[in-house]
Write a structure and sequence with these properties.
This protein has 450 residues and is mainly α. The chain has one domain. 86% of the residues lie in helices and 0% in strands. The chain contains 17 helices and no strands. α1 packs across α12, α5 runs parallel beside α7 and α10 packs across α12. The longest helix has 61 residues.
Length: 450
């Protein structure tokens, strides 16, 4: 009993640390979003979201999931002595350099395709897109250093890094967008990625003298296949997620307008950013702990307690946020974005499902089952894409929000069944009743305010 209570306290403290950092980041990020929204309007904000989606998707395609697969590798050797730990760090940095180089080349080659998919034949933004590869490569390199911080348990350094990176991104974006307008969107992304990488290097103590040599990189390419396999699977799984988001935005851009993309992105940011407060500790603390446990029996309690922790943190915030959406959204963006309120209200239900399925999805990663993880995430992406497009066709933005929540609950059901039959996971009665009670209370709040 004391052990269980101690685990809940640990989870909440960890969530408190990264949740507090996340709140600070949200406040800073919202200042940036407010500035972009006011200066560029809904059309410019839509373009801003498309460029961001391209950077994220390209990084997922080429990044080998270094920020997560690297954590597993380093965590496994963290308590086995300095020599093995040093080798694992060299391996992670070698793969991140290789992935960054591949990311630059592939993204540059794909720039014309991104231009056509995102804007059709009506607009040409190929010149801006040729600078996207720099942001992609720098983000991949940063991911390698962040994996080192996570794998070695440097949560406090990571927390400071997250805040400093958000502040720098805010300053750069304000200066460039204020001076040059929409033309500065891509340069702001590149410069932000550069300064964040420099911060990561300082946090991990990276110097030119301890960079991996050419031989280190070649040896990793030849011999460290385990990280490559997990990394490729994770990259494809992330691509399924970010590719789906990019496809949805491109669909709205070509079938509706950049204004609709802007409204959707505003609503999506509020919903996902909000849930990020509750789930920010998952990769930084929960996943390394899960990766150190080899059997599903030892994982079971960790998973179920993390789910309960997520619900305990997320539900009160959801109940407060739901009735205030119509007042908060114009403050965060502008009155031009009031059309996203209906989307946000119905999309918030998906946060409940997300609180439950996210800890379960990490089981395949922690077990090193790369193909199983890839299959799991591919099904999730298909559910979101199909539900979103169908929902928009039926009910516009509110239909899109309903589709987002429906896909989240379908993903929850799929992940529970899939993980049960694959790994033997069973949700506890506390998890089952906690999930049902959370949904009922949030639905009651929605009925009251509507």
């Amino acid at each position: 009993m004391n052990s269980t209570r101690g685990t809940y306290i640990r989870n909440i403290k960890s969530a408190g640390l990264f949740g507090g950092v996340q709140i600070i980041n949200i406040i800073i990020g919202l200042l940036k979003t407010k500035f972009v929204a006011l200066l560029l309007g809904t059309n410019g904000f839509g373009m801003f979201s498309i460029y961001n989606s391209i950077v994220r998707m390209s990084g997922d395609i080429t990044g080998l999931g270094i920020q997560t697969s690297g954590v597993k590798k380093i965590s496994n050797y963290y308590e086995q002595g300095n020599e093995k730990l040093d080798k694992s760090i060299i391996s992670v940095r070698s793969w991140s350099i290789f992935a960054a180089l591949c990311g630059f080349i592939i993204t540059l080659v794909m720039s014309p395709l991104f231009n056509f998919i995102s804007f059709g034949r009506s607009e040409n933004h190929l010149f801006e897109l040729t600078f996207i590869p720099f942001a992609v490569s720098l983000t991949t390199l940063s991911g390698g250093e962040i994996a080192i911080l996570k794998g070695t348990g440097k949560q406090s350094k990571l927390a400071k890094l997250m805040i400093a990176g958000t502040v720098i991104s805010l300053i750069i974006s304000i200066l460039l967008l204020y001076t040059f307008g929409a033309k500065a969107i891509v340069p702001s992304l590149v410069l932000s990625a550069l300064f964040i990488y420099l911060l990561c290097c300082r946090a991990t103590g990276l110097r030119f003298s301890n960079l991996p040599s050419i031989n280190d990189i070649l040896n990793c390419l030849k011999g460290d296949i385990s990280l490559l396999k997990l990394g490729i699977a994770f990259s494809l799984a992330c691509l399924a997620g970010s590719g789906t988001e990019y496809t949805i935005r491109s669909f709205l851009s070509t079938n509706a307008s950049l204004e609709i993309v802007g409204l959707y992105n505003a609503g999506f940011m509020i919903t996902m950013t909000y849930s990020g407060v509750a789930f920010s500790a998952l990769e930084a603390d929960y996943f390394p702990r899960l990766a150190r446990n080899c059997t599903i029996g030892s994982m079971m309690g960790i998973i179920n307690r993390q789910i309960i922790t997520n619900l305990l943190i997320a539900l009160p915030l959801l109940l407060v946020f739901m009735p205030l959406v119509s007042h908060i959204l114009p403050i965060l963006f502008s009155h031009n974005f009031i059309g996203a309120v209906s989307f946000v209200k119905v999309a918030l239900f998906g946060v409940i499902a997300r609180a439950v399925y996210l800890p379960i999805e990490y089981v395949a990663l922690a077990q090193g089952k790369s193909l199983l993880y890839l299959f799991q995430e591919s099904v999730s992406a298909i559910l979101l894409l199909a539900s979103s497009i169908l929902g928009y066709h039926i009910g516009g933005l509110i239909g899109l929000g309903i589709g987002t929540s429906i896909s989240a609950f379908m993903e929850l059901l799929f992940v529970v069944v899939y993980t049960h039959y694959t790994f033997g996971y069973k949700p506890s009665m506390k998890v089952i009743f906690g999930t049902m009670a959370s949904f009922i209370m949030l639905y009651a709040m929605y009925v009251i305010i509507e």
